[in-house]
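pinned: reference chain
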Amino acid sequence: MSGFDRVNVTVRDGSSPPTVVAAQMNPLREEIDLSGVPDGAWVVCWSGTLADDMFAKDWGTWGDAGMSALKSFCARVAPEFGARRLRLVLRPHARHVLSDAFRCRRFVDENAHGFVGVALDAASMMEHSMLDDVEGHYERAFEMLGPVADLVIVTGLERGDEEDGPPGRPPAAVEGTFAEMVGALIGAHVPGGTPVARMTF
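pinned: its structure tokens
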């Protein structure tokens, strides 16, 4: 299963979790190779950027060009995903097309492809300027996306230096009061049948 990582997920209501794999690629600049991915699997993929660097800021990504490129990618992969009963779960990021909870929710509401959903990854939607109100940003993200997300991705945050990239890259450990806050938000806003994953990439 070259180019993919297996993702361990849990389901709080005890139902059987799906097989979930994560693609380490940029769908706006690369084609996805699904060879080796089992039929019926969920494929987690970044929503992507028009920038050369995966986590660089690029103003065009947040405009019509970025969204058009993402929709074009979804249309190209639709035949294979449909034939193999695969599900595409787009992972948001503050510097990608799906950059915040509002854009994710709008994408879900307007999405024309039944095989495409979004993940709720609150850490990846954070920028350094948002770290003084982590609780408020997380609350809004879970309120807006928790009920409709296909998957909840739980990762930690590191403040670090802005020159080193966004605070969710690479993911930090989830522990202490931060873990308690995330657990409470999941319990309050996410259906019991929604898979939850702790990811380290």
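why pinned: The helical segments are 64-83, 101-110, 134-145, 176-189. Residues 64-83 form the longest helix (20 residues).
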